[in-house]
C-alpha cells in the first residue's frame, strides 16, 4: 500500500507539521554538498489529533545507527556510515545526518544496521509513560543491545538523477507497535526516587528488556525491525 493512502500517515504530516507547511527544508539549509538529504522520524501516539486521554506516550527513542544503504538488484551503495546516535522524537543526530551524494540509479530497497554504540551501550532505547488513569503515570523503558539489520522494500522506487536534489524520509511506526502492548499486564519494578525537596519515595516503573517482561521485549524487538515506511518528500532542480 502506498504511503499517501495511509490515513494515519497523512495525519502525521498534517497534525505534526513535519512538511505540511512547506514543500522542502532543503532551501532553508546552507548550500548542500551533496544531492541527497535523509530524515528519520517517528509516528508516535499523538497523531490522533482529536483524542484526549492517551494510554501511553513515547517521549524518547534513541537509535545507534551504524550504516544506511540503498540497494538495486542486491547491489548496494552506502549512503551513511558512522557511529550515529539518533533521537527520533526530536530528530537530532550526533554526528549530523547531512547531505550525501547518492549515485544516479533507481533504488528499490533500503537497509539500516544498528549496534550498541549509544552512551548506554544499547542499540535501541524507547522510553515513555503509561497512564492507567489520569493523573497517574508509570514510566516505561525498552532497551536492547542486539545488533539489528533492517531491510525494507521502498513503497516506490527512488530514482536519482544528476540534475536534481532529493529529500527522503524514513518513518518508524512506533504507534503501530505500542498500540499492541498490554501495559496493564506488564510486571512493574519498584525503585526509590529522590524528590527536589530531598524526600525519598517509592516509584513503580516498567522495564522491558532481556530480563524483564521478556515476551513483550521479544515482540517489540521483532516488530521494530519491520515497522518503518518510506517516502520521497521532494525533488527539485540543483542550483
What does this protein look like?
This protein has 239 residues and is mainly β. It has one domain. It contains three helices and twelve strands, in the order H-E-E-E-E-E-E-E-E-E-H-E-E-H-E. The strands form two sheets. Strands 2, 3, 4, 5, 6, 7, 8, 10 and 11 form a nine-stranded mixed sheet that branches. It has a three-stranded mixed sheet with strand order 1-9-12, with no helix packed on it. Strand 2 and strand 3 form a beta hairpin. The radius of gyration is 19 Å and the shape is elongated. The relative contact order is 0.20. The N terminus is likely disordered. This is DUF4249 family protein. It comes from Flammeovirga yaeyamensis.
Amino acid at each position: 500500500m502506498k504511503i499517501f493512502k495511509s490515513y494515519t500517515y497523512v495525519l502525521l504530516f498534517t497534525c505534526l507539521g513535519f512538511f505540511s507547511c512547506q514543500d522542502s527544508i532543503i532551501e532553508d539549509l546552507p548550500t548542500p554538498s551533496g544531492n541527497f538529504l535523509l530524515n528519520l522520524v517517528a509516528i508516535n501516539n499523538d497523531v490522533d489529533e482529536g483524542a484526549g486521554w492517551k494510554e501511553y506516550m513515547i517521549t524518547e527513542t534513541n537509535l545507534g545507527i551504524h550504516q544506511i544503504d540503498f540497494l538495486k538488484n542486491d547491489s548496494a551503495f552506502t549512503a551513511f556510515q558512522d557511529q550515529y546516535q539518533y533521537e527520533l522524537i526530536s530528530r537530532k543526530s550526533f554526528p549530523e545526518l547531512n547531505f550525501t551524494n547518492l549515485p544516479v540509479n533507481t533504488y528499490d530497497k533500503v537497509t539500516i544496521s544498528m549496534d550498541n554504540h549509544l552512551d548506554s551501550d544499547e542499540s535501541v532505547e524507547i522510553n515513555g509513560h503509561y497512564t492507567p488513569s489520569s493523573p497517574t503515570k508509570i514510566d516505561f523503558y525498552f532497551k536492547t543491545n542486539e545488533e539489528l539489520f533492517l531491510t525494507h522494500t521502498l513503497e516506490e522506487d527512488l530514482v536519482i538523477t544528476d540534475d536534481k536534489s532529493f529529500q527522503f524520509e524514513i518513518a518508524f511506526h512506533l504507534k503501530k507497535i505500542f498500540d499492541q502492548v498490554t501495559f496493564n499486564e506488564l510486571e512493574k519494578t519498584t525503585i526509590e526516587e529522590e524528590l527536589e525537596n530531598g524526600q525519598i519515595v517509592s516509584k513503580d516503573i516498567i522495564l522491558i528488556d532481556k530480563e524483564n517482561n521478556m515476551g513483550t521485549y521479544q515482540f517489540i524487538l521483532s516488530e521494530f525491525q519491520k515497522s518503518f515506511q518510506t517516502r520521497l518528500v521532494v525533488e527539485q532542480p540543483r542550483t
